[in-house]
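The data are quoted verbatim for completeness:
=====
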Amino acid sequence: MRKFLKTMLISTALSAVIGSSAYANLAPLNSDTEQDRVNWTELDAKFGAFPAIQSGVKIGGVSKTLTNEYWRSLGDGYKSFAAKYNVFVAYQAAANEGDQLGQLSIAETMITEGYSALLFSPQTDVNLQPAAEVAQSKNIPVVNVNDAVMPTATHYVGNVQKDNGVRVAQWFIDNRPDGGKVAVVEGPPGVFAAKQRTEGFTETINKSGKFNVVASVPANWSREQAYNVATTILQRNPDLIGFYVNNDGMALGVVEAVKALNLQKQVAVFGTDGISDAYKSILAGELTGTVDSFPVLTGEVAMEVVLRLTAGQQISRVVTTPQALITQDNAKTYFNANPEELRKVLAK
C-alpha cells in the first residue's frame, strides 16, 4: 500500500509540473545553470536594503530530516536570522530521509495553518511539488532550499551542486598526479544534488585522462549502506586510490570500510556538507576532506530571501551560497571561526 501511495505521490507531482498554469511561464529549474541568479553577497546591492518586516509574520521550514546534522544546522540558520527581526519560525522534518509522504503531510499542514511563507528542502525533486503548487495558488511565497530541486520552483537558495564534485576531482588531479582508480558513492537516484555532484566529479576527473572511475553506486544517504557499498568496491578494486561521496554521513561510513581493510594510507575519502563529525574526522587524519556548504549561513541567507519576498521585493530565481574544500590544511580555520568572521572570509 505504501509503495502504491508513493507512486501516486510522484504521479501527482509530475502532473502538477506539467499542468500548472501558475508555473506555465517558468522553464524547469536547474539551479546550477539558471541565468536569473545572484550571489548571496549581492542581495543589498541588487535589491536594496533589507526591508521592514511587519509584525505577525511567521515562517514555516520543512526539512528532509533532523537525524542529519546538516539539516539541523540549516534550521539553526533560519532561527538565528529570524530572531533578529522577531519573526516566528516553525522548523519540522520527516522521520527520516526516505519518508516522502510524511514530509509532504508536514508541508500541507503548514499551508492550512496560515504561514506567511515557506522554506522547503524536499527529499526528492518532486515530492513537495503538490504542496508548492497549493501554496503558490494562495500567494504564499515558497523558497526551495538545498539540495533537491523542484523543477517549477520560483525561488531557490543553495550552493552550486556540480561544483562540489568539481572541487574534489581537482584535488585528486593536483595531489595524485599519477592518477589511478577512483569511485563514487552517490545519494538517491533521481535527486538533483546527487546527480550534479556526481557529474561534477566524474566529468572533471575524466578530462585529466589519468583516472578511471571504476564504480558509481547509490547508497541513499545511508552511512550503513555506504559502508557496504565501499567494502564491495574495495574488495573488487584493491588498488583503488580514492572515493568521492555525495554527503558526509555516507563518507564516514566509507572511512570505516577503508579502515576495516587497513587501506587508510592508500585510499583518500572526500565527503560533502561540512558537518562537525566530518571536521573531527579530518582533524583526526581519517576523512581526507569534505566540501563545506556552510548550512548555518545557507539557512540565514534563505531566511533573508524569504523575508524579502514577504515584504514584496522581487528577488532573482536563484541565490547562490558559498562552499569550500576542507582538508587538514584549513580545517581548523573554518571549524573554529565565529559566524561573523566566517561571513567575512566567505564574502571575499
Notes: The chain is about 45% helix and 20% strand. The two ends are 52 Å apart (CA to CA). Residues 1-23 have pLDDT under 50 and may be disordered. The first strand starts at residue 37 and ends at 39.
